[in-house]
Write a structure and sequence with these properties.
single chain, 573 residues, alpha+beta, Glutamine Phosphoribosylpyrophosphate, subunit 1, domain 1, 2 domains, seven-stranded antiparallel sheet, six-stranded antiparallel sheet, 21 helices
Length: 573
């Protein structure tokens, strides 16, 4: 049974204790590029966990893994070892490697996975429960990244997360709000109810000290035995059995589905925008291609002269976003199953042709996908749902100049609601398109056994014209992620804002459809009449779950940034 201790006073913000066990093996000193490293994450306790690794001589990868593990404890609604992620790493010379830790569908999955009685289900009919769960990828990703770029011992990276889970952490307002908003999922499993809710069914008060001994045990086992402990034996059997035996939407996940999981190296996606090199994660995420298309299609416009207070500037961003999201909807999917025309989608000539469709004086109206080189004949189809509360992003730069931009997710808040070993299992399969065919053709992002669903995650690195790292960033917020990342890059490169100022800019979200969503209570809401005059007839002010983290390089030093809408923080070494 899970145990908790209730204290009605906010505890120490870190609850990490000492780091005597961190330097389990003495790392060799790396040449210093910066005076000290830095971590930016959505929770200060997780950022501190990563910074502790840097102080012990660890690499950016060591710090990123420790941050991911600590986030599993203190931000369980957003990410963790029951989910997956994407990792983008660069050394001081700008050599980039990326790892795909996206979840996979069980082998039994097919195009009718989300159908009942011959009809496609709605998102709310699928979550919570087993049908939405993919095989988790974060531990495999972490193990692969550590083998390639780690400097500290594997077990050392788990020490802060184990300590927080065992000794307890203070319930924050953001977690409390998530528990109240998503009670049907967070409290779906008895383990979740016992951990986070009082006897009256209400979330534990802010400031309560929550302990998760089951998660501490799971993390301790993985720290001692490596990733094989997660993907084989008792833990793997529990995952498959929990999904098959879910009280709602049971799903035929097998032990072989779990044991057969592998994280994959993928080629990075890079392109030039105003002499800056923009690099990110390629398919199965749509992040890099969509962010780059938004930027490149805007390159012919003088955004600097227009400035962030110009309705015309935001109109141009809107139009470019709609074009980029139309291509995203049609072409992006798992490249192991579908031919994804990455080279065509990022080709400057193709994006110039797409940009030529943008008129500064009026909206395009109906937007359709283009035909990049190498494009297969596919219909346009949008995902059935867009999660906005179940993802976290963090960035690390170490003294040697190595950088990691890592987005971790369990999809929706508290994922599927199913709990194994103290952690929530994801509901990542809802990122597939629920309807497998359109116009008589198979949809690229349809469900198939072993396939990875399309993502919007966009871990990104930006390099200055001299080839040196300028900015590392990423965001959480479902399909709004590329919009957040592109807006932040525009703020830094075109409007000459600090990363903190750029993150704080309001967000405008314009998917392929006509509806444009602006963040309420911001300067964008006051621009609605001007945007309507440019032809944007369907604009809504709606709250969005927005959470961007970044580190920038200014004058040879690191400057952290975290979204003021979140509880995030940057912590220096």
């Amino acid at each position: 049974m899970l145990i908790r201790k209730v204290i009605f006073a906010v505890a120490s913000p870190l609850l990490l204790g000492g780091c005597e066990s961190v330097a389990a093996r003495a790392p060799r000193a790396a040449p210093s590029v910066f005076a000290a490293g830095m971590v930016s994450a959505a929770d200060p306790r997780a950022a501190e966990a990563g910074a502790a690794m840097l102080r012990a001589g660890g690499s950016a990868t060591d710090a990123a893994i420790a941050t991911m593990l600590a986030l599993n404890v203190v931000e369980p609604q957003s990410s963790g070892i029951g989910g997956g992620g994407f990792y983008v790493e660069s050394d001081a010379r700008g050599h980039i490697e990326t790892i795909d830790g996206r979840e996979t569908a069980p082998a039994a999955a097919n195009g009718r996975w989300f159908y009942r009685n011959g009809q496609p289900l709605r998102f709310g009919e699928v979550v919570p429960g087993g049908t939405s769960v993919g095989v988790p990828g974060n531990i495999a990703l972490a193990a692969k990244a550590h083998a390639e770029h780690g400097r500290l011992a594997w077990a050392a990276l788990f020490a802060p997360a184990i300590r927080i889970a065992r000794d307890g952490f203070a319930m924050t307002p953001r977690l409390h709000d998530a528990l109240a908003r998503s009670a049907q999922t967070a409290g779906f499993d008895l383990a979740g109810r016992e951990l986070f809710y009082a006897a009256d069914g209400q979330p534990l008060p802010v400031g309560t000290i929550v302990r998760d001994p089951a998660l501490a045990v799971s993390l301790e086992a993985i720290s001692r035995g490596g990733a094989k402990v997660f993907y084989s034996g008792t833990n793997a059997a529990k995952i498959a059995a929990r999904v098959r035996g879910a009280p709602r939407n049971p799903s035929p996940m097998t032990l072989a589905d779990v044991t057969g999981y592998a994280a994959r190296n993928r080629p990075p996606v890079c392109g030039e925008y105003r002499q800056y090199r923009i690099c990110g994660m390629g398919p199965p995420t749509s992040g890099a291609t969509t962010v780059y298309a938004i930027l490149k299609q805007l390159e012919r416009f003088d955004l600097t002269a227009l400035g962030p207070d110009s309705p015309t500037a935001w109109h141009l961003i809107t139009e470019s976003m709609r074009l980029a999201y139309a291509d995203r909807a049609r072409y992006l999917a798992d490249p192991d199953y579908v031919r994804v025309p990455v080279a065509g989608l990022t080709d400057p000539a193709y994006l110039r042709r797409r940009s030529a469709l943008i008129d500064p004086a009026r909206t395009l109206g109906v937007v359709t996908a283009g035909t990049p080189a190498g494009a297969p004949p596919l219909p346009r189809a949008d995902s059935a749902a867009a999660a906005e509360h179940g993802t976290s992003h963090f960035v690390v730069i170490d003294r040697a100049g190595n950088a990691v931009s890592y987005t971790s997710t369990i999809e929706s808040a508290f994922g599927s609601g199913l709990v194994v070993g103290g952690y929530y299992l994801n509901n990542e399969l809802t990122d597939f398109d629920f309807v497998p065919e359109q116009d008589g053709r198979p949809v690229a992002n349809r469900v198939e056994g072993g396939k990875r669903p399309r993502s919007s995650m966009a871990p990104t690195l930006v390099y200055a014209p001299d080839g040196k790292l300028r900015l590392a960033l990423g965001a959480a917020g479902g399909t709004t992620i590329p919009a957040q990342v592109a807006k932040t890059i525009i703020g830094v490169l075109d409007w000459h804002l600090t990363a903190q100022q750029a993150i704080a800019l309001p967000v405008l979200f314009a998917p392929a459809g006509q509806t444009v969503i602006v963040e309420p209570g911001t300067r964008l809401e006051s621009m609605i009449p001007a945007l309507v005059a440019l032809g944007h007839g369907d604009i809504r002010a709606r709250g969005m779950s927005l959470k961007t983290n970044a580190i920038e390089v200014i004058g040879g030093r690191l400057v952290g940034a975290a979204d003021p809408r979140s509880e995030g923080r940057a912590v220096g070494e």
